[in-house]
């Protein structure tokens, strides 16, 4: 069960135009699997974005993470980030973007969550440069740091290349996306101690 609310806070940076709420789209990147999506925003250059995600299961890179999550400890994810238009094409549409967000997970703490704040079990931060050479095609190079404030998982670093296609045809309607990720630091990138906690995904 997943429910997500997406709020674009363009008014915070003085770039909200009530007559053109969806004047443009900006690419936005997910901290879990580094995939891109498109977010409708108003005119302007800087676009803060906040998401709230309530779920009793967690998927990352196609794997089910929270298989012991139950209705008594439903994780809540709060993400704060945004996109800035760095350069524009001749038609005025954004071509190069700086995109990033911090996604933080909270739930009722388990007994094995050792340190405070025990309910803050996940903090993932990702930054990317996204490029949109033509309408409907976006690609990005991203770097993510995934940490566990309450100490149940090791900190890991990941570098990703990701592509999103939303062209004006049948394939674009399906919005196919692809991400290739390499763990640059943390479990999987170096030898780990048998006593180490599992990586945060």
Question: How does this model look, in words?
Answer:
- A hairpin with a 6-residue loop joins strand 2 and strand 3.
- The strands form 3 sheets. Strands 1-4-7-8-9-10-11-12 form an 8-stranded antiparallel β-sheet, with no helix packed on it. A two-stranded antiparallel ribbon has the order 2-3.
- 25% of the residues are buried.
- It has one helix at residues 170-174, and strands spanning 2-8, 24-29, 36-41, 46-55, 59-60, 63-64, 76-88, 94-106, 120-134, 137-147, 156-165, 177-185.
- It has 201 residues and is mainly beta.
Encode the helix/strand succession as letters: EEEEEEEEEEEHE
Radius of gyration: 18 Å
Number of strands: 12
Percent range for helical residues? under 10%
Main β-sheet, spatial strand arrangement: 1-4-7-8-9-10-11-12
Determine the structural class based on helices, strands and strand pairing.
mainly beta
What is the overall shape? elongated
How many angstroms separate the termini? 19 Å
> Sheet bearing the most strands, described?
8 strands, antiparallel
- How big a fraction of the residues is strand? over 45%
Mean of all residue-level pLDDT scores: 78
Counting copies of identical and different chains, the oligomeric state is single chain
- Please tally the helical runs, counting DSSP H or I stretches of 4 or more residues: 1
Unreliable residue stretches: 1-21, 190-201
């Amino acid at each position: 069960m997943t429910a997500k609310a997406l709020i674009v806070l363009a008014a915070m940076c003085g770039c909200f135009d009530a007559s053109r709420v969806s004047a443009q789209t900006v690419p936005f990147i997910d901290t879990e699997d580094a995939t891109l999506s498109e977010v409708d925003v108003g005119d302007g250059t800087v676009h803060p974005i906040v998401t709230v995600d309530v779920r009793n299961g967690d998927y990352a890179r196609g794997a089910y993470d929270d298989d012991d999550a139950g209705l008594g400890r439903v994780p809540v994810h709060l993400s704060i980030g945004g996109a800035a238009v760095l350069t524009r094409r001749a038609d005025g549409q954004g071509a190069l973007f700086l995109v990033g967000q911090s996604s933080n997970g909270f739930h009722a703490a388990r007994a094995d969550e050792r340190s405070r704040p025990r309910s803050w079990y996940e903090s993932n931060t990702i930054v990317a440069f996204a490029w949109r050479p033509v309408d409907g095609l976006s690609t990005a190079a991203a770097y993510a740091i995934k940490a566990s404030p309450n100490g149940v998982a090791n900190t890991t670093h990941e570098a990703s290349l990701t592509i999103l296609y939303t062209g004006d045809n049948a394939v674009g309607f399906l919005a196919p996306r692809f991400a290739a990720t390499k763990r640059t630091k943390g479990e999987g990138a170096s030898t780990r101690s048998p006593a180490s906690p599992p990586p945060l995904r």
